[in-house]
User: Fold these one by one.
Assistant:
Number 1:
Amino acid sequence: MAGLDDVFGDLYASIDAVLLFSPSGSYYERFSDVDDLDVIVVGTENPVNADVFVELPLAFDDIKERIKFGLEGAIEQDLIEDGDQLVCATSLYGDEIDTVSRVRADAETHTGIYDLFVKSRAEPEVIKAVLELAIELGKKGQKGKPVGALFVVGDAGKVMNKSRPLSYNPFEKSHVHVGDPIVNVMLKEFSRLDGAFVISDAGKIVSAYRYLEPSAEGVDIPKGLGARHMAGGAITRDTNAITIVLSESDGLVRAFKAGELILEVDPEAY
């Protein structure tokens, strides 16, 4: 009579590594005696003091996003290689690990999202909120029409010093933050006008309608991208901000950090 190993054996046969997402100490210890197996702990913290650890900036509720981010982080840190067969163990219904899936590491699907979150000055929740706003705007546009937008996130004081107003600032005396549904509606409405949004490390909307003034010299962006992307790249070279740019022409969302393009996402595929 067949046992569970016979049914599920293929799930963990010939694997190269196991990724444990936020394991308890007792769960992690189960793997200490397993020979010839790389164990990678993934989580917002490392309470088990694992030697091999990938930090998550957020406790992603969506299990697909959680695993995707963990894989990109492991690839970025050279802990796994393209083509590796992996088992990912994580929690879905409770705090303890209760879900196991088998995946193949694919470097070609590397989006750069790990680079966007890790070691950025702005809070991860703020980056996530702005990225999701840009993706939603890319999907729906402004009143059904494609729209472009530029969000500068973090190091707001320096960004303001390297830019000038194109019009009045509707957020000058307000204390609203990105992520609030009502505020997001306002940002979508204002996005149809020229200029960049400036957002603080903590998510406060500092300004709209800013013209970014840093020199574009030395900033390398893909051919076909225009002034909005060039300005987005240049401001991150001269400050500790990141920028998230929605292209009106091709509808893609791109992110820049330290003067370089680090992320390119199709909103329809996100």
Number 2:
Amino acid sequence: MLRKASAKNVIAACGLALLLAACSSDDKPAYVERPVSELYNSAQDLLDAKEYQKSAEAFDEVERQHPYSVWATKATLMSAYAYYQDNKYDDAITALDRFISLHPANPDVPYAYYLKALSYYEQISDVGRDQQMTQHAMDSLDDVIRRFPDSQYARDAKLKKDLTVDHLAGKEMSVGRYYQDRGEYLAAINRFKMVLDKYQTTTHVPEALARLTESYLALGLEGEAKRTASVLGHNFPGSPWYEESYDLLVGDGINTREGESWWHSTTTALGDWF
């Protein structure tokens, strides 16, 4: 009786195993290799339909099934582009790094570097947050400008670099204002001077000079305050920041006229200040 029960159990177990195997095969169809042109065109159709995630996966499949095909090289780059369009910037950067590493002499390498820079650039956050991504973007934009100076990508990279630099200067100004509001004037001065030293071409320079003037006055350094205000007036005479600094000096009873001597004796171009 025990033997019969055991035999029945074995048969039932085998039947169950076969059933599970059948179900498994229904869930996961057997791997079928497809022609490379069919795979690539299917991925391109998905991209045109803005099915970016599916398109990226389809381009990846081209490379997986036909790694030595000329289409595999193009598919790697197109996969990165699809990830970029889908805002999957980390995946795009990974694919682009692989493309650049495997195909350094490919004519599309300049575009790969450019798209990598854009993938960082699109992730730049507001000035109140950590600016590591902004630095990555600037380094990658510099890569494009340095490696491919005569390309169409370099021209756009230069424009975006200017915006990136302005963003970094904005971060220094934000920190400087924070210190200034807390009465930590030496720390604030260091931040404002960094803007003048590293980011002289940005829109933040007039405000940096004005806030330096304020900070020097708060520390009782009237000579430095007048010198800084004179640089501000010489380089940005119509700026409201200069008008504010001038009014601040007058309001503090500092002799700003006296034959205009403080102005003419200390007027300095911004580039000669440091």
Number 3:
Amino acid sequence: MTNLQFLWFLLIGVLFSGFFFLEGFDFGIGMAVRFFGKNTAERDTIIKTIGPHWDGNEVWLITAGGAMFASFPMWYASLFSGYYLILFLILVSLIFRGVSFEFRANMQTDTWRHFWEWAATLGSFCAAFLFGMMFTSMIEGVPMDAQGNIFGSFTTYVNWFSLVGGVAVTLMCFIHGLNFLQLKTLGSLRDRAQAWNKILYPVLIVGEVLFVVLLYITTDFFAKKAASTWTILIVLVLLTLIAWWGVSKTHNWTAFIASGLSLISIVVLIFNGLFPRVMIATNSAHSILIKDASSSPYTLHLMTIIAFSILPIVLVYFIWSYWVFYKRLKSPKAA
């Protein structure tokens, strides 16, 4: 494995980390539109909290997919073909969620406005759940031949571990969204988001314990990398506890940063367990390794120059956009 191959494996992990940190609270806010907002005025305010940001946050996913295609084409081909149906459903969910914000704002009747509110909520829920299910299924190991073709059955993708992973990621995104709502609003919405998270955090901790048990049973993470796996899991639990403490003490920034870092720790856990592989096969001889899946050295070298030339500009823009829209929104008065 070369340094550039290792670098691009790390960069793809960073891109997915950025996606789940930023898009995670977008998914949570999307789910909150119908599950949390009590009336049209509250739902308007909830959507406004992510209005300037949600489409920009999705760029992290597009960039991660593009980087995977360019730097590790064999990884891209195996993952996207083997998980085609799940990725198709994710795409449909993201499309419905994306158009729902615009269509809802232009609907003249309550019936259609409610329809697009449900589209935002269910699209966000399904996208978060399917992402969690896909990545959890992937680290179990999949039936794969020597060419990287996946021959999965229904239970390859849908099983107890993948379902728990999907629920856990969905709940983490919802909690992260409520923490963002506490940062961006004042009044009843902020107070209610805090009250909900005080209830949801104990549920999440139970879910994390169940996830760890199934991770131990169904993956080779503990057998191959026990020390790093346990370290990451301990950090995950500590971040969850810190976020819970932040919610209890109304330290909104602490709760938000900790819940976002919890999502990042899931990505770190997955990439740590994958290394030096990019796809895990049930027959270990067929697993795809980083050194075998990458593009040519010239391609990686050229991509590195382009990436590090553009990345500072993108980061400055993201920081600037969040700074411009940093002010809190007031909760609508009760009717």
Number 4:
Amino acid sequence: MNRAWRLLKRRLVGSIPVLLIVVVGSFLLLEAAPGDAVDAYVASVGGDAGMIEALRQSWGLDASPMTRLAAYLWALLHLDLGHSVALSRPVLSVVLERLPNTLLLMGAATALSFFLGTALGIVAGSRPGSLRDRLLSVGSLALYAVPGFWLALVLTIVFSVQLRWLPLAGMETIASGKTGFSRVLDIARHLVLPVTSLGIIYLALYLRMMRAGMAEVWRMDFTLAARARGIGRRRIVWRHVARNALLPLVTMLGLQSAAMLGGSVVIESVFSIPGLGRLAQEAVGARDTPLLIGIILVSAVLVIVINLLVDIAYATLDPRVGASEANA
């Protein structure tokens, strides 16, 4: 318990400069881009020079970039992410309103890709070089090469437009009045295609990693010794090979969280899911810098938390890692 607590403190302290770099870097990159929120607003509704100047003063865009950055960092110390100029609402409330939908999409896609990919990887790696190993390896390579947006469009055309088995878009049926378990089922039906589109690529990645890890473990001395003692192949697979090959997948689970969060931007746009990805797309169109930085900051915190949980899980699975990290 003390080792886990020391590991947790080290990771939390190390995440502070990371978040600072994310905030400052995002602010400077957005400032370097041409135009601002006033330009985007005037381009959509029109306006004269007087209105433009008034908007810049009202939204605080008349100050220098360094002055606005210092003011933003000071507000951030008080957990204030600023005010969205496009939505006229606090950034934190807008982000927290959309965050559950993204978490639900990411969680379901991660569970699908990790558990199914691991299971198929065990099936392929239990007998390296067999026909099922070759078929699964080729299939996973083909899936990994498929663009997520293309797969999302194909699944939508087949299962929503032609067969009409699943909903076309959205998070749930609008104004359906469903509550309780019926609402849960309605949300689940709406998530089938987005989760499949987002998770299928990473499923192929976990399958290939698990298969490669098992192929390596099969050649290790303790596995050869277990086979020499006459232990059954199924017992060797589950108690020795699969267990040792699983550790790199746990690490990859944390590394792929950022990639999956980025992939959700495309999937949410295709299926009109009101999550952080679609909110970021709207913020880019409106040049809403405070909202964009807030989304990036919350996403960075989310990735750090996921990787922290993965580190704790890895230290639990392999006590040697936890001991070395805690004593470092």
